[in-house]
Design goal:
By secondary structure, this protein is α+β, with helices and mostly antiparallel strands. It has three helices and six strands.
Amino acid sequence: MNSFHRRALVSFALLPALIVARQVRAQAAAPILLFKVVSPRDDVVVGIEAAQLGAGAAPPVQRLAAMLADKGQLTLWQYASQHGEGGALVQAPLRQIVVFKNDLLRIEPYSTPLAIKAPGASK
């Protein structure tokens, strides 16, 4: 077998791996930032893509608060702990909710040791 045939055989053998790698890269979502929205009545964990907050020197929580103040309301994903693939716990989107601007509302950064699942990611 000459070197051309050997390279072609190796290329065909690696083709499925390259296709899978490309699909995984295409499915990689923007990082999701989690926040806890606290009101006198209750509190919820919400998520937003980092790209939606835009770039800036201010911390993400301040950029989210500024967006809410400017727009008056934001539609965000509510997050909760759920069992993901393989039974491992993940922070996953539960449902979309609307957060209204309110003087009694407090927004805090929320950290979790769990993996964060993006909205629309396969279950």
